[in-house]
Batch of 3 targets.
Target 1
Amino acid sequence: MHTHRQARILALQALYELDTTQHTAADVIDYRIEDQPLSPEGEAFLRLLVGGVLTYLDRLDELIQRYAPAWPVAQIAIVDRNVLRLALFELSGQTQTPPKVAINEAVDLAKLFGSDSSFRFVNGVLGSAMAEHEHVRLVPPPSTPLAVKD
């Protein structure tokens, strides 16, 4: 399996856990890497994804609410919500992931881990976001690291 795809899967699993427990990001990531080791590049990408989503969480949720106005973010299925957070972070350009790749990967994650209709919902929300902007704009919070460190 491609390194970035495996890192995205682990990032989604980590974000799901962080969304439903009081565990720390560093502990969750360390456990994921211990359970499913990644190359150094994969580990760095995993940490960038999780750290980026956590850094911009409020802004990402605002974007989800903007592009899926019929659904309060808290009521969106946990998998779908975190797939969207990951994809919108990637669409910000901070991971150097091409937009089409970010959307395709998000749809694939939704197919793998979501409900039968998750992939259509994720594709629709991301399509709306991309129809409005070439890249999702995220304003960095002051002096907050993007990558989760050990």
Note: DSSP finds seven helices and no strands in the chain.
Target 2
Amino acid sequence: MEKRILTYRKYIDGLLTKDGLDWAALIREHLIQISFFQHERLIHLIVTVTFALLEVIVIGLCVTAFSPGVGLLAIAILILLIPYIRHYYILENEVQRMYRQYDQMVAKRDNTAVWQERE
């Protein structure tokens, strides 16, 4: 999924440098892609939070009743949790970039300035 979202975002970045495209059709397609990636992001958030809670529970078990098996379980869950956090981080940031692309596409369609959020 990481390769797909990065490839798609770069493809849209390339389209945004062009003029004379059917922006209404591109916006519709872009919104569909955003919804796919939002769904993926939600699923990965649920999995990541579940693994994080499981890690907290196992660490609590390590503190109260340590055994080598529980220690190994804590390490195994942590090893799995790190890639989940990385993947969720990538999905979250790329979807946020896709929102900005959407704003740019609407601006191109309407021949207006790009709406920008003030931070």
Note: The chain has one domain: 20-108.
Target 3
Amino acid sequence: MTLRLLIDMNLSPSWVEVLRESGFEAEHWYRIGPGNAPDSELFAWASQNGYIVFTHDLDFGALLTATHAVSPSVFQIRTDDVSPDALAPRAIVLLHRFEPQLASGALVVVDEMRERVRILPLGNN
């Protein structure tokens, strides 16, 4: 199964080609919906269409927790430099490593030093 990634507005559209070249399906939100759409709209679209949200926005973890959602999965990068030049090699390795979890429902949070995976739904503890 190929992961389908929806790139959030807070990340460069150049991520699309980088991810596609690495074997993923990828779309940037600007090609799908309005740039000023609330996160909940992007979240709902990703869930309905089988996409994983690829973002730098912390709000998606909060949305997952508040709604106890089982989808969409979220791959959240928490670094200062979110450009593909700086982050693509690490992001691609981690997307492949956590593909089973992302495919079945997870929040993956990545920073410069480590990564954390939480299985969905969140907030049921």
Note: The domain at 4-119 is CATH 3.40.50 (Rossmann fold).
